[in-house]
Specification:
Elements: H1 2-13, E1 26-31, H2 34-46, E2 51-57, E3 59-62, E4 70-73, E5 80-88, E6 96-97, E7 104-107, E8 115-119, E9 125-138, E10 148-153, E11 157-170, E12 178-183, E13 186-199, E14 205-210, E15 214-227, E16 236-241, E17 248-257, E18 262-263, E19 269-270, E20 273-278, E21 283-291, E22 294-295, E23 300-302, E24 311-313, E25 316-319
Parallel strand pairs: 1-2, 2-5, 3-7, 4-8, 5-9, 7-9, 8-10, 9-11, 10-12, 11-13, 12-14, 13-15, 14-16, 15-17, 16-20, 17-21, 20-22, 21-23
Antiparallel strand pairs: 5-6, 18-19, 24-25
Length: 372
């Protein structure tokens, strides 16, 4: 019963109750090693089931210990894949989940992104939540960057919820932490923290939305992103790009701050803008986006913020109790604010939702670290 309630709660939160009716085939995997995760992803890709759940027990999953990189490409029409971390339970069962990405870590290798997910044109849907991803050793030139690459085709959907991407180092490709390529589908990311990453053009995340796709990003925090090469105009903590008229990106209740300049191999200083937008023909809307610098001109920019955001420290976007981001978010942003933040703390804890991936605890931050 507890297991069924956990699945029900997640599906309800994303409006998927109708897709989990008893008439649909459901497969569930409870994994505890990198090899098991790889096997579950392969099995999901080859499965004809409508709903596949991959639950990761709390712990570390190192791609080096797996027979091949963590990867999934949807093959079955309308298949839903739900990958989640933070699980525990007796025996081989995953029965209890804690919604905190730091409890479940994926570590990558040199040749590939740590995790690659493709929601193909068959109407596939991919949901990834409660997982942290890192890759300090990425040296390949393949697209996707060091940590997370998500591709969405027309008629398909991908959602990220409660994610941390940190210590991603992409030496020979553009994006360090994450590259999200939405080609005519729907992409949603919320409560995502990106910190301490280095890439050639972008140490943070890049979102490209084309062919009439819609991408909604809310409650995102990016800090200490560094870049060391490429066109200075492309270096950013958050890079948003819509190359055609029918496409749209919305970024809301988010903060990108403290993304550092970097001395490249030629000894020149490369400056990293906090947010860069390229709405050549499409639409990019910003709502309550706090940043140190903005490159480009968004189609709309509602209630922007600047100044010291009140982070706990360098590379740590959690908020001090006196942060100007506390209680300053807009309600019901595109993509939603979610039930929990990027540490698993409850939203909302004050008069309004906080800006960024982390919700500050009322009266201070000590209770956020397990001392309550």
């Amino acid at each position: 019963m507890r297991r069924a309630l956990c699945v029900f709660r997640f599906l309800f939160a994303f409006g998927l109750i109708g897709l989990a009716l008893p008439s649909h085939a459901i497969t569930s995997y409870c994994v505890s090693t990198a090899q098991q995760l790889n096997q579950a992803l392969t099995a999901a890709q080859n499965s004809s089931d409508t709903l596949v759940l991959i639950r990761l027990r709390e712990g570390t999953y190192d791609t080096f210990a797996s027979s091949s990189p963590f990867s999934y490409v949807s093959q079955t029409v309308n298949q839903i894949l739900d990958i989640s971390g933070g699980w525990s339970g007796d025996g081989s069962n995953c029965t209890t989940q804690r919604p905190n990405p730091a409890l479940t870590q994926l570590i990558g290798i040199a040749g590939y992104p740590t995790l690659t997910l493709t929601a193909a044109s068959s109407g596939g849907q991919v949901y990834l939540h409660d997982i942290a991803i890192s890759n300090a050793n990425h040296t390949a030139t393949t697209i996707g960057g060091a940590c997370l690459y998500v591709k969405v085709a027309a008629g398909s959907e991908a959602r990220l919820e409660r994610m941390q991407m940190h210590d991603c180092v992409a030496r020979n490709t553009s994006f360090a932490a994450g590259f999200f390529d939405n080609r005519g589908g729907t992409f949603t990311a919320r409560n995502v923290a990106v910190f301490n990453n280095v890439g050639r053009r972008n140490g943070g995340i890049g979102v490209t939305t084309s062919l009439g796709g819609v991408s909604n990003l809310a409650q995102i925090s990016v800090t200490r992103a560094m870049a060391f090469d490429g066109n200075p105009n492309d270096n950013a903590g958050i890079l948003l790009n819509t190359p055609d008229a029918a496409s749209r990106i919305a970024l809301s209740n988010s903060v990108s701050w403290g993304n550092s300049s970097y001395i490249n191999n030629s000894g020149a200083t490369v400056y990293v803008s906090d947010v860069a937008v390229y709405s050549f023909y499409g639409t990019i809307d910003l709502t309550r986006v706090h940043r140190g610098s903005l490159l480009g001109t968004p189609d709309s920019d509602v209630a922007p913020g600047s100044g010291d955001p009140g982070f706990l420290g360098i590379g740590d976007a959690r908020l001090r109790s006196d942060s100007i981001l506390v209680d300053s978010g807009v309600s019901s942003p595109p993509g939603g604010s979610g039930v929990f933040d990027a540490d698993g703390a409850t939203r909302v804890q004050g008069a309004a939702v906080d800006v960024g991936a982390f919700e500050a605890a009322p009266g201070g931050t000590i209770f956020r670290n397990g001392f309550d």
